[in-house]
Write a structure and sequence with these properties.
Shape: globular
Number of helices: 15
Largest sheet: 6 strands, mixed
Structural class: alpha/beta
Radius of gyration: 24 Å
Strand content: 5-15%
Order of helices and strands: HHHEHHEHHHEHHEEEEHHHEEHEHEEEE
Length: about 450
């Protein structure tokens, strides 16, 4: 089925992608002729209303050609966050249980409930980010706790998010920065630790768990996120379930859950770390999961045997042990250019800034590289809209508008414009790119389509 769905001739693929047929053919030949092939993909794939399908198409190609489970082979996601994998491991997504267990599998929900000795575990996915603020605006959510993010800037249709936060909802914000576009809506503002003040672990895209050790003392009343959550839980009467004294207590429970009733059917397995003590946790060296109990050798923090490579034995974590293809049908963005909005708006990062400028915006040296919001446009489109390089232009979509400095460049394709999403009310009140982005999302991941909004 996957092959049948993917069947298309090279000229048709080239036309659909806006590429030359010869370049597409050459790409296929390179993939065919080089057994060691890595596919590195990032937000251009993920931030799409069909992002999950695109990732599955990449996986299908690697599975079909055997380019997985071998040195120099495989699909590799370059995520937008340094601990994106770690957040998923602990159930940090609304549509996923902890330890990579799944709401769609009733056995997983039953298992997690028994592990935590509760019959009140959620039985279906929660609201993902865009859905959540739609529900806030509709009055269906009466309280929201925002931690370590700035949704008034970063979410699509950002002006609607601001309106939701400013409505009849109780807003709690935990942040390491006092003044952000989101903290202005907070009824309660909780001071949290910044990156260099935190103690815990992070996991990168190659499954490598690394210790993060604080190198700065906690300022003022700032506390670790886990400590804030646990304190609130205790005051709500859940003290027995949140009786943590240190980060190692949470990590140990995390490892035990991953190993609970895990007979090798689940890839996320930290059974080798279930009994880690405080000293070994403090000294823990980077290790790739699965970390299995039967691979431990000796004692000490470097004794935990990780797994360098998955699938080398041809076994996959499915009931049959075989890989599964998922047939996909290519489809375009949810919204496409028309006579009113003839351009396609793409948003993204610039080299020296990070997300919503809450920290990098405080550095004069970093800000020297890109000093203000800009709109990059191809010379043909600049002439069409009578724009000059260095002038100011208003960019508008069906969801919002902004003002940006014009950068005329051949790096853009005709018909496409690019705007960085970093700027906020704190730095450029009329230069907020995500106020323009359509709130279209992927039906599976919930990821916004930040790369394709019709504009003018």
């Amino acid at each position: 089925d996957a092959l049948a769905q993917a069947d298309a001739d090279i000229p048709a693929i080239a036309r659909a992608c806006g590429l030359r047929a010869g370049d597409v053919r050459r790409f296929f030949e390179l993939f065919r002729d080089h057994p060691q092939t890595l596919t590195l993909y990032s937000q251009g794939i993920n931030q799409s209303s069909s992002g999950t399908d695109k990732v599955n198409a990449i996986l299908n190609c690697h599975l079909l050609t055997g380019r997985i489970g071998k040195p120099g082979c495989g699909p590799f996601s370059l995520t937008g966050q340094p601990n994106a994998m770690g957040g998923r491991e602990v159930g940090g997504l609304a549509n996923q249980l902890a330890a990579h267990m799944d709401f769609a599998n009733p056995e997983h929900g039953d298992r997690v409930g028994r592990f935590w000795q509760t019959d009140k575990l959620a039985t279906q996915p929660g609201l993902r980010a865009v859905e959540l603020f739609d529900a806030v605006a509709a009055g269906q959510v009466k309280a929201v706790w925002v931690m370590a993010t700035n949704p008034a800037v970063s979410l699509p249709n950002a002006d609607a998010v601001r309106a939701a936060l400013g409505g009849d909802v109780f807003v709690v914000v935990s942040d390491c920065v006092r003044h952000t576009d989101t903290t202005q809506y907070a009824d309660v503002l909780l001071p949290a630790l910044a990156w260099g003040e935190k103690d815990g672990t992070v996991t990168n895209s190659e499954r490598r768990i690394s210790r993060q050790r604080a190198f700065l003392p906690a300022p003022g009343e700032a506390r670790a996120d886990w400590d804030i959550i646990a304190d609130v839980a205790r005051r709500m009467g859940f003290g027995a379930a949140f009786d943590y004294k240190a980060a190692v207590d949470i990590f140990r429970e995390h490892a035990v859950l991953s190993a609970f009733e895990n007979d090798g059917s689940r890839d996320f397995d930290l059974s080798g770390l279930c009994d880690i003590d405080a000293q070994d946790y403090d000294d823990l060296q980077p290790v790739q999961w699965p970390v299995l109990a039967d691979r431990a050798a000796g004692s000490g923090a470097d004794a935990y045997g990780g797994t360098e490579r998955l699938f080398a034995d041809g076994r996959f974590y499915t009931p049959s042990g075989k890989a599964q293809f998922i047939a996909v049908s290519p489809r375009g963005p949810r919204y496409t250019p028309d006579g009113v909005f003839p351009l396609t708006l793409n948003t993204g990062r610039v080299r020296d800034h990070w997300h919503s400028l809450t920290r990098t915006g405080k550095s004069p040296r970093l800000s020297q590289h890109t000093v203000e919001p800009f709109v990059a446009i191809h010379p043909m489109d600049a002439r069409r809209f009578q724009l000059e390089n260095g002038a100011l232009a208003q960019v508008e979509t069906g969801w919002g508008r902004m003002i940006a400095r014009v950068t005329v460049t051949n790096d853009q394709r005709p018909g496409d414009i690019f705007v960085p999403f970093h700027w906020t009310d704190q730095f450029a009140a009329k230069g907020r790119a995500d106020a323009l982005v359509a709130p279209a999302t992927d039906p599976v991941s919930g990821q916004p389509e930040s790369k394709a909004t019709p504009a003018r």
